[in-house]
Amino acid sequence: MVIYIVSGGLGIYFHIRSNVEFELEMYPSMGGWELVRESLTGALPALAPGTMIYLGLLGWAATFRNPFLANVSATQEEES
User: Fold this and answer.
1) How many other C-beta atoms can be found within 10 angstroms of the C-beta atom of residue 26?
2) How much is the pTM?
3) What band does 72 get if pLDDT is binned at 50, 70 and 90?
């Protein structure tokens, strides 16, 4: 789950960075809020990797304090 969350964050970062580079290559004088708006809605979907963050958090929430997983770890400790 942690890998999903981290890769989603990195994906957002790299998509936005690519969009900023693309917009600055097309319009070198662009800056400020216009650059932010264009990079968020640019060629690469900047917020699409957010789905991976959502899936990671959903999986983590589904397994957080799961009684079955607690019993499995307690059984493994008793066997050791």
Assistant:
1) 11
2) 0.72
3) low
Helices 50-63/2-26 angle, 10° precision: 170
Q: Among positive and negative, which fits the CA dihedral 20, 24, 26, 29?
A: positive
> Using a CB cutoff of 8 Å and minimum separation of 24, what contacts does 30-39 make?
none
> For residue 55, is pLDDT > 90?
yes
Alpha-carbon dihedral sign for residues 43, 46, 51, 52? positive
Listed range (43-47, 57-61, 76-80) with the worst mean pLDDT: 76-80
